[in-house]
């Protein structure tokens, strides 16, 4: 009996990078569906993107105060939703030794500051580039793998060149530009032009008792290094390995502070054995497992 064609599974860059970072964390989150502890930095990032998106989509007629209010409303809503699921502040992931409630309050200040500083930055460079599309959804094939996502920003420079950009509000920036390379490929498919420029924007951070304010930084990447062949191989390998249920853990000393499913980790000394046992055997998506059995 011929093996049935595999059912297409939508992939994304975030899934690919999450899988590559730690296969066990990816398995627990995406396949086993283990409960994920909340963190204020997730809400801060989404709310900042929302405010920046609204600012650019309205033609920049929004004031900084109005944009910050968009951030505040979105942030408060995200936090309220997470708190309804996890009403114990001690269970929240934080950026240090502070408690969850204090971290939530601190990140509201940080996010509002980032939105203000982004607007100053955008106006300062108004003669150099403008955002022609923001948070644009796409669905393309890469190496036969259905790949979806949202392009944070498509910019057009004064010389007519196109650039993809992604604002990042966290303290760390991706070490790989694969996300920007996929955005560029999507722009080429939809607009007929391959962006020659790409950058991550490391958003500004206000001064604290520990140090001075940090300015917004542009971190540029050469997308010519990211060939179609490389992207296709990466997505094909990821898709094949995930369908086979292959997940390699990559535990670090920082797991318990940054990984939302660390308590269910099967690596000795990282999780809690009695909790990890609940999800340790779940290594296949239900539709993929059923397909294999039918074959």
Question: What do these coordinates show?
Answer:
There is one protein chain. The chain is an alpha+beta fold. The protein has three domains: 13-34 and 232-294, no CATH class; 36-124, no CATH class; 127-203 and 212-226, Lambda Exonuclease, Chain A (Alpha-Beta Complex). 44% of the residues lie in helices and 15% in strands. The chain contains ten helices and five strands. It has a five-stranded mixed sheet. Strand 2 and strand 3 form a beta hairpin. The N and C termini lie close together (7 Å). Residues 289-295 have low confidence and may be disordered.
- Rg calculated over all Cα atoms: 21 Å
CATH architecture of the largest domain: Alpha-Beta Complex
Q: What is the succession of H and E elements?
A: HHHHHEEEHEEHHHH
**Low-confidence segments:** 289-295
Shape: globular
Distance between the termini: 7 Å
- Helix/strand/pairing category: alpha+beta
* Helix run count: 10
Tally of discrete structural domains: 3
Count the strands? 5
CATH topology of the largest domain: Lambda Exonuclease, Chain A
In what order do the strands lie side by side in the largest sheet? 1-2-3-4-5
Share of residues in helices: 40-55%
Proportion of residues in β-strands: 5-15%
Mean pLDDT: 91
Major sheet details:
5 strands, mixed
GO molecular function: helicase activity
Keywords: ATP-binding, DNA damage, DNA repair, Helicase, Hydrolase, Nucleotide-binding
Domain PD-(D/E)XK endonuclease-like: 12-265
Organism: Pseudarthrobacter oxydans (Arthrobacter oxydans)
